[in-house]
């Protein structure tokens, strides 16, 4: 049975992905790409892997990270989350969510974005 991930944007839920997705953005100061692979686990979101292109302010590479194809790959020790609250800024790169080859750019603004398994 597949689950759907929704984003709370401007007070309404929007369908984002089914079962798994990649969340990516560009660091607002260092301008380096950051990616995270997430899967739905019941009613929670589980972080599977993260990738970062380099180091910078708040972007330390974990000691177990492996450099492959220009990015550091690692598995963050994060428990499953009931929701993800993304800091949003008109000054940084926008968040992008991809499900396979289908991608959607989330709107930039001053309000945080929340991702969760749809009710």
Description:
The chain has 119 residues and is mainly β. It has one domain (4-117). 0% of the residues lie in helices and 52% in strands. The chain contains no helices and 11 strands. The protein has strands at 4-9, 12-18, 20-26, 33-41, 44-52, 66-68, 71-74, 83-86, 96-99, 102-105, 113-117. It has a 7-stranded antiparallel beta sheet, with no helix packed on it. Strand 3 (20-26) and strand 4 (33-41) form a beta hairpin. The radius of gyration is 14 Å and the shape is globular. The model has no long low-confidence stretch (mean pLDDT 84).
Biggest sheet layout = 7 strands, antiparallel
Low-confidence stretches: none
Q: Tell me, briefly, the overall form.
A: globular
Fraction of residues in H or I helices: under 10%
In whole angstroms, the N-to-C terminal distance is: 14 Å
Q: How many strands in all?
A: 11
- The H/E string reads EEEEEEEEEEE
Pfam families: DUF1850
InterPro entries: DUF1850
Protein name: DUF1850 domain-containing protein
Topology:
Layout (H helix, E strand, L loop, with lengths): L3 E6 L2 E7 L1 E7 L6 E9 L2 E9 L13 E3 L2 E4 L8 E4 L9 E4 L2 E4 L7 E5 L2
Antiparallel strand pairs: 1-2, 1-11, 3-4, 3-9, 4-5, 5-7, 6-7, 8-11, 9-10
Key features of this structure:
single chain, 119 residues, mainly beta, seven-stranded antiparallel β-sheet, four-stranded antiparallel β-sheet, 11 strands, DUF1850, DUF1850 domain-containing protein
What's the gist of this structure?
The protein is mostly beta strands. The chain has strands at 4-9, 12-18, 20-26, 33-41, 44-52, 66-68, 71-74, 83-86, 96-99, 102-105, 113-117. The strands form two sheets. The protein has a seven-stranded antiparallel β-sheet with strand order 6-7-5-4-3-9-10, with no helix packed on it. A four-stranded antiparallel β-sheet has the order 2-1-11-8, with no helix packed on it.
